[in-house]
């Protein structure tokens, strides 16, 4: 077995954060090697070192057995390393061809290079099944195709080792399957693929070998065929974890959130939510599945009172929200709608505020936190300490800046703030995005408890597994429309097709 | 009403007004193209005004002392590049705020030109009056004599096309040249890319900083030409504050033109035209309207930019990464 890539004793610190500790990794030529780990385990740092984004403090990188020095991306490319980043490195208003050429133009004048690149890309497309319209503007392409452009970019530069960082986060299950097919073709053609992910099922589906990272270290490397999802999860977290939540069948009560014919346009006038109707009952979790960008965010924001809607009616606990013709977040809160926003950094928290300040954010007018213009800091801190204890927020310090907490603990802060208001309806967007497995377990349990306490929950998540695990009913959203309702035990394939806009009738 | 229209018509479609429009739009055009290179690479530059002013002073002073227009040009370009590099250092290397840095350069140039001018030449901030050899004179294009007597074409060729100084021709030739650089060369492709998504450029193995430095050097050269034009081609010496806001009008033209070279030329011609009309109308009554204050015409470029962008020609979307220093993300 020859090794395409070998890491020996790689070490990297950022200030006091030891991101990579003595990493040893051997990747066989012509294989798909997975690297799993929780967020913050150091996977991305390690890949950035291989791609020359950072230089390691210590250690050696060997390619085809020879030690190499990779000081920048240019050197990495020269050594045959290509990378598909989690956030695509594309210029939106360039064509596919221009994007692929950037940095490999083949001369000062563009014309001759363009001609050659077009021919070479045609060959690559035929060889690996990577077809894409070369003259399309990249920003107009769906994400699945944008990713294909990224792969083409790497191959065009002659990459033999392809690194993919969380490649399926933005894809539908069908698109992900297609990607895996491409990866297998690449492997069979002798390329080496390094797949970074936190999704264990992907690892099982496509890799030959898998290395698990935890807290900056590689804790184990296994042949994929000889391990299981449960074992990998345990290695990632360092203790055994429950991947399933126990829950009893729901006992839906009165309707607490009724949405009729809701239409929402975005700032550019594009319809993002298209005549959506749904009902959430007390004591049930309604999940909205869909690929990111199909209007779920706008639906959630409209219901939270952040985004104006154009037509439609919303009733909270039987009360008509638009009765006075306008809607704002404070009014929705007053009616008992709590909101855990999809992006906690953008909407849920002020990261430079102390933890106790974030615990009161949006509810600072509450008499509990002081009277008139003054805040009762002591009451706020006591309240925050309660929440820290109840939600096991670590480190347990209410005066620490929120930015110092991990993703999971930040999310717990938001959840604690919203759930402790004792809402009638809880709107939750991506409750476990960027959250480690241990905290996911806690958050899922907490949401089920809330349901069992008779609250209605509307859950939006791009993680289909999460929706199927938590929801009592699943609505699928595509292109702004709610295209159908299924039971959570509907097959992943069926839900995946709906998420891609294919209805069962059309598929048959 | 008819009187009014015919009066306006007579003013606009008059060879000497059109000729003045070309001369007045030249510094705008050079400055707008200067801004184009910088902003397309993601560095906002409101310091065009300051760079032009400093270049105008340097050119005026050097030409005054040496008696050579070409040495004046060299001095103007060098000082403008130096200021552009200061802005580059502040924005690219030090990752400072690009607006603050631009404003600082404007203030610096406004103050220092007057101070040095007074210290060196003792003429209230002016540089010495330049003789013909120290200025860029008019160039007669070949054939101007021959065509002189041909009606219409001869007049247009003689007055409008021929008989400008060399910097006017340089400015208008810079338009197709800039277009060619931006859209037909490797440098242009990378420049446009770095203004939209510097991370894409970085991961393609290209240095973001070096690329942006080259872009601000281009800006420096063109701003230097613009300033030089003012003091030793259009006038015969430097006056205090002689740019009079042209750097900002050039920015307006650039936005108006959505950061594209050829539309930028038309925007600058339009603004130059307004300027020419304003000069001709100074103190003159328009039938049916009366005397229009000159300030109205001076404000027109800005008013037009706002109104036309607001409703008529669609949104001007600046380069996406403009104004933001590039920092490698620590994930």
TrEMBL record, chain A:
Domain ABC transporter as annotated: residue spans: 5-240, 257-504
Residues spanning the membrane: none
Annotated compartments: Cell membrane
Protein's membrane topology: Peripheral membrane protein
GO molecular function, one term: ATP binding
Annotated GO CC locations: plasma membrane
UniProt key word Metal-binding: no
Family listed: Belongs to the ABC transporter superfamily.
Xref: PANTHER family: CARBOHYDRATE TRANSPORT ATP-BINDING PROTEIN MG119-RELATED, GUANOSINE IMPORT ATP-BINDING PROTEIN NUPO
Protein name: Nucleoside ABC transporter ATP-binding protein
From TrEMBL, chain B:
Topological relation to the membrane, as annotated: Multi-pass membrane protein
A single cellular component GO annotation: plasma membrane
Cellular location(s): Cell membrane
Stored CDD domains: TM_PBP1_transp_TpRbsC_like
Keyword Cell inner membrane attributed: no
Keywords: Cell membrane, Membrane, Transmembrane, Transmembrane helix
GO molecular function, one term: transmembrane transporter activity
Segments passing through the bilayer: 55-87, 99-121, 166-183, 213-232, 295-313
One family name in Pfam for this protein: BPD_transp_2
PANTHER family: GUANOSINE ABC TRANSPORTER PERMEASE PROTEIN NUPQ, SUGAR ABC TRANSPORTER INTEGRAL MEMBRANE PROTEIN-RELATED
Name this protein carries in UniProt: Nucleoside ABC transporter membrane protein
């Amino acid at each position: 077995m020859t090794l395409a890539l070998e890491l020996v004793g790689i070490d990297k610190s950022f200030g006091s954060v030891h991101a990579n500790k003595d990493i040893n990794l051997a990747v066989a030529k012509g294989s798909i090697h997975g690297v799993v780990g929780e967020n913050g385990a150091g996977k991305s740092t390690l890949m950035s070192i291989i791609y020359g984004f950072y230089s390691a403090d210590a250690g050696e990188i060997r390619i085809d057995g020879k030690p190499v020095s990779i000081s920048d991306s240019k050197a990495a490319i020269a050594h045959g390393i290509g990378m598909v980043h989690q956030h695509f490195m594309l210029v939106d208003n360039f064509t596919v061809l221009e994007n692929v050429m950037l940095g490999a133009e083949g001369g000062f004048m563009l014309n001759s290079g363009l001609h050659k690149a077009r021919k070479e890309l045609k060959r690559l497309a035929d060889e690996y099944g990577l077809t894409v319209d070369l003259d399309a503007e990249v920003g107009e392409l769906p994400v699945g195709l944008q990713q294909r452009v990224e792969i083409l970019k790497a191959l065009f530069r002659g990459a033999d080792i392809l690194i993919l960082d969380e490649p399926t986060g933005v894809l539908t299950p069908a698109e992900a399957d297609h990607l895996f097919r491409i990866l297998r073709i690449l492997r069979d053609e002798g390329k080496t693929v390094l797949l970074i992910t936190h999704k264990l099922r992907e690892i099982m589906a496509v890799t030959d070998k898998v290395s698990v990272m935890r807290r900056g270290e590689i804790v184990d490397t296994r042949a994929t065929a000889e391990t299981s999802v449960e074992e990998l999860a345990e290695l990632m977290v360092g203790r055994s974890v429950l991947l399933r939540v126990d829950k009893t069948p729901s006992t839906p009560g009165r309707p607490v959130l009724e949405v009729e014919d809701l239409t929402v346009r975005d700032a550019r006038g594009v319809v993002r939510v298209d005549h959506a109707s749904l009902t959430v009952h007390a004591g049930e979790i309604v999940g909205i599945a869909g690929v990111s960008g199909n209007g779920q965010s706008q639906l959630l924001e409209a219901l939270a009172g952040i985004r104006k809607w154009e037509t439609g009616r919303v009733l909270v606990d039987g009360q008509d929200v638009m009765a006075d013709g306008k809607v704002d977040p404070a009014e929705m809160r007053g009616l008992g709608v709590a909101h855990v926003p999809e992006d906690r950094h953008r909407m849920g928290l002020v990261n430079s505020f102390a933890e106790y300040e974030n615990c009161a954010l949006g509810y600072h007018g509450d008499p509990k936190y002081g009277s008139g213009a003054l805040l009762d800091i002591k009451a706020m801190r006591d309240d925050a300490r309660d929440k820290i204890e109840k939600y096991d927020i670590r480190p347990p310090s209410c005066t620490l800046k929120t930015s110092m907490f991990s993703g999971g603990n930040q999310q717990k802060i938001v959840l604690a703030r919203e759930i402790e208001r004792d809402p009638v309806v809880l709107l939750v967007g991506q409750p476990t995005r960027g959250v480690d497995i241990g905290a996911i377990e806690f958050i899922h349990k907490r949401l089920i408890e809330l349901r069992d306490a008779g609250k209605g929950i509307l859950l939006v998540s791009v993680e289909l597994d999460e929706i199927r695990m938590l929801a009592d009913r699943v609505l699928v959203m595509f292109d702004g429309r709610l295209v159908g309702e299924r039971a959570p035990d509907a097959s992943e394939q069926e839900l995946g097709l709906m998420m891609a806009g294919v209805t069962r009738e059309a598929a048959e | 009403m008819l009187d009014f229209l015919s009066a306006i018509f007579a003013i606009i479609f008059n060879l000497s007004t059109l000729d003045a429009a070309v001369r007045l739009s030249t510094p705008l055009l050079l400055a707008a193209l200067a801004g184009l290179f910088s902003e397309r690479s993601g560095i906002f530059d409101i310091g065009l005004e300051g760079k032009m002013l400093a270049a105008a002073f340097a050119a005026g002073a050097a030409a005054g002392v040496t008696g050579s227009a070409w040495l004046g040009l060299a001095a103007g370009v060098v000082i403008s590049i130096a200021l552009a590099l200061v802005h580059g250092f502040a924005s690219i290397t030090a990752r400072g705020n690009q607006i603050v840095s631009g404003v600082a350069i404007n203030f610096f140039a406004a103050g220092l030109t007057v101070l040095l001018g007074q210290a060196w030449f003792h003429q209230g901030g002016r540089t010495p009056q330049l003789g013909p050899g120290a200025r860029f004179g008019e160039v007669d294009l070949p054939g101007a004599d021959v065509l002189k007597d041909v009606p219409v074409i001869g007049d247009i060729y003689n007055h409008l096309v021929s008989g400008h100084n060399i910097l006017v021709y340089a400015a208008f030739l810079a338009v197709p040249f800039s277009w060619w650089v931006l859209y037909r060369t490797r440098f242009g492709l990378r420049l446009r890319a770095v203004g939209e998504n510097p991370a894409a450029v970085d991961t393609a193995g290209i240095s973001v900083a070096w690329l942006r430095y080259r872009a601000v050097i281009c800006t420096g050269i063109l701003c230097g030409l613009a300033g030089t034009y003012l003091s030793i081609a259009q006038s015969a010496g430097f006056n205090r504050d002689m740019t009079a806001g042209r750097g900002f009008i050039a920015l307006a033209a650039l936005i108006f033109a959505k950061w594209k070279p050829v539309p930028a030329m038309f925007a600058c011609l339009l603004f130059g035209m307004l300027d020419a009309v304003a000069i001709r109308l100074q103190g003159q009554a328009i039938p049916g309207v009366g005397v229009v204050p000159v300030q109205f015409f001076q404000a027109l470029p800005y008013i037009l930019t706002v109104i036309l962008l607001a409703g008529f020609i669609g949104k001007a979307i600046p380069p996406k990464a403009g104004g933001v220093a590039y920092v490698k993300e620590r994930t």
